[in-house]
Amino acid sequence: MFKKKIVNDPIYGFITIPDGTIFKLIEHPWFQRLRRIQQLGVTHLVYPGAVHTRFHHTLGAMHLMHKAIETLRSKGIEITEKEEESVKIAILLHDIGHGPLSHNLEHSIVNNISHEDMSSIFMEKLNKELDGELSLAIRIFRNKYPKKFLHQLVSSQLDVDRLDYLTRDTFFTGVTEGVVGYDRIINMMNVAGGNLVVEAKGIYSIEKFIIARRIMYWQVYLHKTVLSAMELVINIINRAKEVAANDGELFCTPSLRVFIYNNFSKIDFEKSEELVHTFSMLDDHDIMSCIKVWMSHPDYILSTLSTWLINRRLYSARLQKEPFSEQKIKQLIKKAKIKYQLSDKDVSYFVFSGEVENAIYKIVEPQQSKTTTGRINILYPDGKVADITKASDYPGAGDLDRITRKYFLCSPKGL
Question: What domains can you pick out in the chain, each with its CATH number?
Answer without folding.
Answer: 4-221+375-393 (1.10.3210.10), 224-356 (1.20.1250.30)
